[in-house]
Structures are given as structure tokens and as C-alpha cells.
Amino acid sequence: MYDQETILKEIRTKWAGKTVHFAKETDSTNEWAKRLSREGAQHGTLAVAEFQNAGKGRLGRRWQAPEGSSVMMSLLLKPEFEPQYASMLTVVMGLSVAQAVEKLGVQVSIKWPNDVVMSRRKICGILTEMGLNGNKIREVVIGVGINVNLKEIPTELQDKATSLYLETGKTYDRVQVLARILESFEKNYEKFIRTCDLSGMIEEYNQLLANRNQPVRILDPNHPWEGTALGINQQGELLVRDEQGKIQIVRAGEVSVRGLYSYV
Fold first, then answer.
1. 78-125 pLDDT, tens digit each
2. Which pLDDT band, with edges at 50, 70 and 90, does 181 fall under?
3. CA triplet 242, 160, 197: central angle to 5 degrees?
4. 3-state secondary structure 25-77
5. Residue 214: CB atoms within 10 Å
6. Strand pairing of 136-147 and 70-77?
7. Segment 198-232, tens digit of pLDDT
8. Which of 123, 125, 148, 213 is least surrounded by Cβ atoms within 10 Å, i.e. has the fewest?
9. Cα–Cα nearest to 217, from 190, 243, 244, 253
10. Cα dihedral value 161, 125, 264, 202, nearest 10
């Protein structure tokens, strides 16, 4: 069973997911978590749905998945820090998902900044949204969609997406997957708020970085270029050595990074 009761039973955190709202269907878990925030929901509240009828990814892309196949959840945070640090939480969640999946005995890596990948294809999408009161954070909502037991991928996504089931031939208990993610995220978030940067996670992140020491192409619309990815810095930016040997800083949100011959 995958419902509020089974999820709550498995969660062993101090605050992440201590309150769980579960629905068979919702518009999008991110929108639902924002509504819960407006109704006074606490830091760490989790919204989980079996089906989203208006799920969304980055750039407004639709996100849908058949029943029983995925984990679709959004975590509500009420941080005290300044708004400029919030975007790094996407990287914190990407690392947390990768660590959680590895605890299930499955090897994964991260395509910078936050795509969790297997066989150079994505198993997880993360969307972070922030609401402000004046210049203070009202809430941050991190939406996570993971292809767990998905048995087929739409043709147009087969070169970019996969699932735990398709990679390993095994089905997974989604409650376990969700609970492990919250455990990893809580630890990483507590490290993050001490410094408001990724200094406490750089080493673990770089060990999982799929593009590390690999040739990459920086898809800058004005001036695409190639180099070698070295790892991230404390702000979660990617350090890339260009063809002249100079180390350049690449910022998420400004450009995309791809492998030379594939998505990763």
C-alpha cells in the first residue's frame, strides 16, 4: 500500500515529512504544497500524490505518470535565510535523492546541477519554487518526481529518461524510496543552513557527478563552448576548464550543460 498511513509509518526524521498529506489525485504537488503553506502548514510538511493532472517540470513542461509507477511529492520549507540562497536547495535535493537511491543498493550519478541519472538517462526531476513576503522567504517548495516502477518511457523521451525498474529489472517499495530521500534531505538541509552554501556537501556531490573530469559542451545561446567539467564550488556552480586551460564558472539557470555525444 502507498498512502498517508504507510508513508508516515516509514518516516524516521525529526521534521522532514512529519506531517504528510496524501491524495490519489491533485493538480500538482507543488501547487498543493503552496496552498497548504497559505493555510498555515508547518516547515517540513509533505504533499504526496499518486496522480497529477497538471504536474509540471522545468520550463512549464507537463509531468505525468501512470498509477503505481512513481514517487511524486513536494516538501514545504519555511527557511529563515535570505532569498538568494534558496536556488541551491535544488542541488541539495538532487544529492539527497541520489544518496537515497544508492542506499537501496542502486548505483546512480548526478548530471549537474540536479538530474539523478542511470545509464546516462534521467530518473528524477526536481522543481523548486519560492514565495516571498516582501524581501523575506514565505516558503520554498521542492517538488520531486522519480521514475521508480515505470515499465515504459514515451518514445520521445527514451534517449533522456529511464526508471529504476527499467535499469535493474526490480520493482521497489515507493514508501521506502520516499522515506530514504527525506532522511538524506534532512541531514543535508541541516548542513546547508549552517553555512548557506554547499561547502559541507561538495565532496559527496562531486563523487556522484556524472560529468566529472569528462568533456562537456556548454550550451550558451550566444557562444557555445567546450571544456572539461571539474566539479562544483560552494555555490553549486560548475567549474569547467576551457580549451585554453582557464577555469570558468558556469551558473545553473543561465546555460545548459551536456555531454559531448549525449544528454550526460
1. 999 999 999 999 999 999 999 999 999 999 999 999 999 999 999 999
2. very high
3. 55
4. EECCHHHHHHHHHHCCCCCCCEEEEEEECCCECHHHCECCCCCCCEEEEEEEE
5. 13
6. antiparallel
7. 999 999 999 999 999 999 999 988 899 999 999 99
8. 213
9. 243
10. -150
**Cis peptide preceding 113, ω within 30 of 0:** yes
- DSSP H or E segment with residue 182: helix 174-195
- pTM for this structure? 0.93
User: Taking Cα atoms as reference points, which of 200, 207, 202, 213 lies closest to residue 236?
Assistant: 202
What is the spatial distance between Cα 98 and Cα 230, in angstroms, rounded to a whole number? 19
DSSP assignment of 65-129, as one string? --TTSEEEEEEEE---S-GGGTTHHHHHHHHHHHHHHHHTT---EEETTTEEEETTEE-EEEEEE
Cα separation, 29 vs 35, in Å, equals 10
Q: How far apart are the first and last CA of the chain?
A: 35
